[in-house]
Amino acid sequence: MHILVVLPNWLGDVAMCTPALRALHQRYPHAQITVAGRRIAVDVLEGLPGIANSVVLPARPNFMEMIRISRQLKPWSRDLAIVFPHSFRSALLAKLSGARRILGYNRGGRSWLLTDSIEPYREEGKIQPVYMAQEYSDLLNAVDVKPDNQGLELVADDQEIEAVRNHLSRTGPVVGFAPGAAFGPSKRWPAERYAAVANDLHERIDAQCVLMTGPGEEDTRDAFLEAASVPIIQCHGGSPTLARLKATISQLDLLIGNDSGPRHVAVAFDVPVICIMGSTKPAYSCGPYEKGEVLRIDVDCGPCQQPVCKTDHRCMTGISPELVANTAIRFLP
Predict the structure, then answer these.
(1) 128: domain range?
(2) Which has the closest alpha carbon to 44: 213, 216, 204, 247?
(3) Percentage of residues in the chain with pLDDT exceeding 70?
(4) Is residue 249 part of a domain?
(5) Does 92 share its domain with 187?
(6) How confident is the model at residue 69 (pLDDT cuts 50, 70, 90)?
(7) Could you tell me if 35 and 52 are in contact, meaning their C-beta atoms sit under 8 angstroms apart?
(8) pLDDT for 44-54, tens place per residue?
(9) Of the candidates 112, 143, 174, which is a domain's last residue?
(10) If 221 and its partner were Cys, which of 46, 213, 281, 294 is the partner (CB 3.0–4.6 Å)?
């Protein structure tokens, strides 16, 4: 049996689809499961059991590119294609690949591309937000796949872990800071406030403060480092990769970050998280497997689900560094 899985685009969503991937492998242990997605999606799943092949897809391919890619996918999608993203393009790619059966949610006017078009969760006729790990697992009910309720799962490379440990000392809790968010600035608590928390935790409990930023987050990184008055560890050696990010997060005692990808990577490694949440709806990302606490305040304009705040960003600026630091200490050894 050949099964193609079209992966979500965002790092956090990919981490949240791992319970569904594991359950799929458990139900069809002899199937050849191929995952296809953007580079970030394929890389974060590196080392995960049950995946036979990985195919990197370009971002937003045009029709001719999709024809070329579909020919590459054709041997791996013969029996079933599972489409996790909601986009029309992802369902079209599965259709072009020639899969006999195509499973996905009825979103974006694409139901005619799917052989198994599953209705999203609704209340009073309106689509409602659902924890993404549950949404992905629920989709697989149609192919007799049941969740094992064991949570998110990722694998860190042993050599990468050893490289991270070389940056850390043997004393003081290891606290990671992830001040970025690819979705947009509305999700980002100010970098200077993250630095203030690092300063506080280092002075109070001798915390080892690890900064994690990725490509395109140089301004956030620089603002954090400029505001920090204590030693800040960066484990990536100047070239951040997802392999090093996974290894770094796996060695933390606590992660402090926005509602972004590293949060869900931490959940996969059973690392407690202090999540500072502003513009996004908690229902999408708050699940039963997370340890730690979500810090958010209700405002009359939110959650807006917009990448850029149109007012004064009070959903985030109303959260103080003192609150974050005090909350963090409760979850540290």
Answers:
(1) 2-143
(2) 247
(3) 100
(4) yes
(5) no
(6) very high
(7) no
(8) 999 999 999 99
(9) 143
(10) 213
**Using CA atoms, how far apart are residues 313 and 237, in angstroms rounded to an integer?**
33
**Cα–Cα distance for residue pair 177/56, rounded to 1 Å:** 29
Torsion sign, CA atoms 43, 46, 50, 54: positive
Nearest to 255 by CA among 188, 209, 189, 315: 209
What strand order describes the sheet that includes 53-56? 53-56, 32-37, 2-6, 80-83, 102-105, 116-118
Of 296, 268, 269, 272, whose CA–CA distance to 282 is shortest?
296
Helix, strand, coil percentages for the chain (3-state, nearest 5): 40, 15, 45
Residue with the larger pLDDT of the pair 116 and 307? 116
Q: Quote the pLDDT of residue 271.
A: 98
Q: First and final CA of the chain: distance in angstroms?
A: 47
Burial classification of residue 30, based on how many CB atoms lie within 10 Å of its CB (0-12 exposed, 13-18 middle, 19 or more buried): exposed
- Locate 115 and state its tokens: 């052989």
Inside any domain, residue 149: no
Both 128 and 192 in a single domain?
Answer: no
Q: In this structure, what CATH number is given to the domain that contains residue 107?
A: 3.40.50.2000
242 neighbors 44 (Cβ within 8 angstroms): yes
pLDDT at 304 over 80: no
Answer positive or negative: Cα dihedral of 301, 306, 309, 310.
negative
- Provide mean pLDDT across the span 173-180: 95
**Per-residue pLDDT at 182 exceeds 90:** no
- Which of 117, 143, 169 terminates a domain? The answer is 143
Instruction: Using the predicted structure, report yes or no on whether residue 316 has a pLDDT greater than 90.
Output: no
Total domains in the chain come to 2
Same domain, 95 and 204: no
Q: What is the pLDDT of residue 125?
A: 86
pLDDT digits (tens, 9 = 90+) for 16-43: 999 999 999 999 999 999 999 999 999 9
Residue 125: how many CB atoms within 10 A of its CB?
5
Question: What's the number of CA atoms in the CB half-sphere (13 Å) around residue 32?
Answer: 11
